[in-house]
Amino acid sequence: MANMLRNPAMKRAFTTTSFRPTRPQVKHPFPPTPRPTPRGGPVICPAPTGSTPPNRHFGTGRRLERLKDQGSFGDGFMDIGSFFQLRVLLCDCVVSMSAPSDSKTDKRCRFLELAAELRNRIYEHALVEEHTIAIHRNNITQPGLLRTCRQIREETRSMYYCGNNFKIETGAYDVRPVKMFFKQARGFWSNYDQYENEVDRLGNVEYGIRHSKPPWDRALKWLKAYHDNETPPYVCPHTDHGYGGFCEDFAVAFDMVRAMAPFYWSGIEKVLEKYREVANEAYEEYEDWV
Questions:
Q1: Angstrom distance (rounded) from CA 3 to CA 106
Q2: What residues does 133 pair with on adjacent strands?
Q3: What is the DSSP-derived secondary structure letter of residue 175?
Q4: In whole angstroms, what is the distance from residue 193 CA to residue 195 CA?
Q5: pTM value?
Q6: What is d(CA 124, CA 164) in angstroms, rounded to the nearest whole number?
C-alpha cells in the first residue's frame, strides 16, 4: 500500500476518486403536500399597471403544452421554476378574462348626469296624473321615485304635490291619514302664511267622507290638528250640501279656531263645547254631535 502511494499517478487517482462520499437520491412515492393557504385567503394575483391588461391568455394552451413537454407534471413532481411559471401563467389568464372591455356599449348612462330639462320630462311622465289621486289609510305612502335619494326627492316633491289633485278618504272623520298626507306635503301649504308664488301651492284636495257629521271626539282631534298647523281647514265635499247643516257646522268650527289662533287650545276647547251645545239645540230633529 505504501509502495502504491509512492507512485504519483496512483496517488492522484486514489485521492480524487476513492474518498469522495456520495448521497443516494431517494425518490418519494407520493408528491409533496402543498403548503396551506394563509388565513387571509388565497394569494391574489396583482393586476397589471396599464389601463387595459394585455390579452395574454390566447397563448395559454401552448405555454401549458410546453411545460408538459418539459416533464413538469408527468411524474407528480414540479420543480420550483415550473411552479412559478405556472402561477404567473394562471394569474395572467384570470386577469385578462376579468378585465373590463373597451367597447362603447359598456359605458353606463347615469340618470343624475342627464340634463335637468330631460329629467323634468321624465319626472312629469312618472308622477303627474290626469285623474285625481286617492289617498286613504292603506295608500298613504309617497311614490317610490320620491324615496329614491335626497336629490331626486328635492327635484320631484313640488311636481308631485303641486301638479296633481288629491282626494283623501277618511272614513268616519279619521284625521290620521289627513295629518300624514299634509306632513308629507309640508312646504306647499300653510294655514297662516300667504303664498306669493301660486306655482308652489298644493293641488286641489277634497275629502271623501261617508258620514255627514263627525263624532265629537274626532271633531276635536281634527280641530286641534288645524290649530297646531298640522292640517288645513276642513272643506265640505261638493256632494254634501249639509244634511241639515251638519257639514256646515263643522266647517264653521274651523273659522272659530282660526279666529282664536293666538290662544291656548285648552281655552279654545271650552268655546267649542259651547258651540256644540248651541248646534245641537238648533237641530234637535237631526243627528246631534255625540
A1: 91
A2: 166
A3: -
A4: 6
A5: 0.56
A6: 10
